[in-house]
Amino acid sequence: MFVVEHMVTSFISAAAFGIIFNAPKQSLFKCGIVGMLGWMIYIVLFTVEIDTVIATLAASFVVAVVSQIFAKMYKTPVIIFSVAGIIPLVPGGIAYDAMRNFVQNDYNMAMNLAAKAFMISGSIAIGLVFSEVINQVIRNAKLSSSARRMR
Amino acid sequence: MEAKMMRRYDIMEVCLLAGKIMLQSGAETYRVEDTMMRIAASYGIKESHSYVTPTGIIFSIETEEPTKTKLIRINERSTDLEKVTLVNSLSRQISKGHLSVEEAFHALEKLDESDLSYPFKLQLLAATIASGCFLIMFLGSWNDFIPAAITGGVGYICLIYFQRVVPIKFFSEFLSSLIIGMLAFGFVQSGIGHQLDKIVIGSVMPLVPGLLITNAVRDLMAGHLVSGLSKGAEAFLTAFAIGGGVAVVFTLL
């Protein structure tokens, strides 16, 4: 039940974000799929008590890879899919918690949470970079092998 | 000679218009640069340089004649992924040689003026449902679904309305998150809502600068340090406005 609940809600929210960001109609369904994949990986890792930073890293990596595959398949910019997938991973909740603690003068707690929010957004970034690097390596390998054949 | 110069000028216009539309619609800076140079190259310009930041585009074309450079200022930025896709597919057509300079220019002009966004009611519905769904994803309980959805929807209406009235983006985000905070507080006080934190987090999600953060990171790693940092600053300001708006409610009540 837990899994189904999360699959449905993450699919709907990613597709809804596609509408808010005005993604093309035919890509809304794919946005939902990307968002769902990313969130399922995150929430599964989260429930088996793996650190949130690592869970976010894995999820954002998968989101980026799937977005790149979709972008190549449908000849559209990567950003359409990756944005919808990344949104649920963005540490909005933690950033909000940190902010609230700041206003309530609990600076220790606030700094802890702020550092955590920073770490999580960093791991989203690293996930994205990592998939980009792998993509470049594959492309370069293809190019050099075709160059060898030319010779 | 004169005709040749005219043509070159037109190529520049096509590139700049394509770049302008993409940047205004929220494309990554490196993609804008790449697209502009690709279009120029497919019209036979061997050397072109572009420098794109979130607030302006500088583009120059080098030929036998003296180098031509033009600058465009970008004031408004919104998110319209459909336009990014359409310019992208236009530039693909151009590089295949299917479009002449004039045809491309007219197509881009039409695209620039058109409004492709979904009807406002649909966007509002999306924001409303997304807020409710985020509540469930952040491990909230189902009996908070409707309060979160209503709060998120009202917050989204406020954001759109304030953005029309108040020219400062920071302020409109601050005000709408203030209203979200008050509404959520009201729901919990009246006993309809249960977990204040979860309701606020869920309904604030449509305002969270997710696209900006992703874009900032992608620009930074593509080596566009200036635009990456400035987009990061914009994202930070937005996050700060949202957090501040909600926080004010907590301190007042």
From TrEMBL, chain A:
It is a multi-pass membrane protein. The keyword Transcription regulation does not apply. Keywords: Cell inner membrane, Cell membrane, Membrane, Transmembrane, Transmembrane helix. It is found in: Cell membrane. One of its GO terms (cellular component) is plasma membrane. GO terms for biological process: succinate transport. It comes from the Bacteria. Belongs to the ThrE exporter (TC 2.A.79) family. This is Uncharacterized protein. It comes from Rossellomorea marisflavi.
Automatic annotation (TrEMBL), chain B:
One of its GO terms (biological process) is succinate transport. This is Uncharacterized protein. Keywords: Cell membrane, Membrane, Transmembrane, Transmembrane helix. Transmembrane segments: none annotated. The lineage of its organism: Bacteria, Bacillati, Bacillota, Bacilli, Bacillales. It comes from Rossellomorea marisflavi. InterPro entries: ThrE-like_N (IPR010619), ThrE_Dicarb/AminoAcid_Exp (IPR050539). It is found in: Cell membrane. Belongs to the ThrE exporter (TC 2.A.79) family. One of its GO terms (cellular component) is plasma membrane. It is a multi-pass membrane protein. Its main location: membrane. Coiled coil: none annotated. GO terms for molecular function: transmembrane transporter activity.
